[in-house]
Amino acid sequence: MMNCREVTTSASDYIERRLNPLTRLGMLIHLAMCKGCRLYVRQLRLAIRGLRALGTTRQPASVVDPHLLEHFRKANRPQGD
Amino acid sequence: MVGLGRGWKVRAGPEYSLSLGVSITNAAKASPRNADFEMNEDLISRLRAGDEAAFSLLVGEYQGRLVRLARSFSRNESVIEEAVQETWLAVIRGIGRFEGRGSLQSWLFSILVNQTRRLASKEKRHDETGNPGTPNPNLTAEPRGDPDEDEPGLNVRGRWEAPPVPWGLEDPESFLLREETLTVIQKALSTMPEGQRQVVLLCDVEGVSPEEACNILGVSGTNQRVLLHRARARIRRALDAYLGAKPTGESGPKRRGG
Ligand SMILES: [Zn+2]
Asked: Of A5, A54, A59, which is closest to B205 when you measure between CB atoms?
């Protein structure tokens, strides 16, 4: 029987379906009986969604370094144009 | 070079288009990546052909993300700046030889990680207190069974003594997108151990696959999984602390009592 510590430790693998079938079953049984762990898994999912949200709301650079563009230009026009 | 098959993706705001000249100027406002487009052969051939608009688009898209990742390896801003600069120069030099078997994104990230590590260890060698060339202990140490990483609400028998309390969010989706929430997450990221931060930035924030993250960072799959979970658990605790500390307010998230 898994205890709550084992369930919390395996929660990410559970969410990503990376547990072997037996451990997954043990997890499901524990979750069916333990409100605290159910809540933990739900909140962990939200944390993951928050992290993803951080990746999708960014500020693209408004100005590209002109020196960098110059390097790009030089690399692509060896003869000078 | 990282060579794992995965679609290459650049997510850009709707104002971007590769076929048009790059209009980076009106992109200063935060733009959600809702208009995902595939970073396909077309972009690579444009870059190889010397298309400045394509290059500017790539830099505009990735500059901030490279800086964010570099900051998880070094606190030295000049190291970070140089590493990002070196990454772009390596891209300019290497794009002709890039085979496109892996994603361009992974290629960028692995160049950055190598450059930042190289420059950071060089910097350390100048510093007498530094331990020259030591790889990040967070990534090399076996991370299992660290009592510091236990959930605080668990008792010695591994059961909840103080089980998680419902967050009582009426609309979790919009809560997660709020500026304040993202700041809480960002703050938690900046204070967690480097190894955890590097893995969670790549895997959850940037959406890199676990296999690619292992290649980029040079960690085992087991360590990647443990570090990723610990990082996420810290984010959960940070959100929990934030929601618990916040009084129920008109615009704030509501938390059910007890
Ligand atoms: Zn439990």
From this structure: A54
Tokens coding B212: 């690619």
CA of B59 to the centre of ligand 1 (A): 46
* Closest by Cβ to A40, choosing from B49, B50, B164: B164
CB distance A62–B151 less than 8 Å? no
Q: Chain A to chain B, count of Cβ pairs less than 8 Å apart?
A: 163
Contact B150 A5 (CB under 8 A): yes
Integer angstrom CA distances of residue B248 from A12, B244, B245, B255: 30, 9, 9, 7
Q: Which residues of B touch A18 (CB under 8 A)?
A: 225
Nearest of B183, B184, B197, B191 to residue B68 by alpha carbon: B197
Sign of CA dihedral B120, B88, A79, B24: negative
For residue B56 the two structure tokens come to 């500017």
Domain ranges of chain B: 14-124, 140-245
Using only C-alpha atoms, chain B has a radius of gyration, in whole angstroms, of: 21
Domain ranges of chain A: 4-58
Q: Could you read off the pLDDT tens digit of each residue along chain B, which spans 258 residues? A: 333 333 333 333 333 333 323 333 333 333 333 333 445 678 888 898 999 999 998 999 999 999 999 999 999 999 999 999 999 999 999 988 887 777 889 999 999 999 999 999 888 777 645 444 445 554 544 455 566 677 999 999 999 999 999 999 999 999 999 999 999 999 999 999 999 999 999 999 999 999 999 999 999 999 999 999 999 999 999 999 999 876 544 444 444 444
What CATH class does B140-245 carry? mainly alpha
User: By CA distance, what is B144's nearest residue in A?
Assistant: A9
Spelled out in words, what is the top-level CATH class assigned to the domain B14-124? mainly alpha
Ligand 1 centre and the CA of B25: distance in Å? Answer: 51
Contact A12 B204 (CB under 8 A): no
ipTM of the complex: 0.91
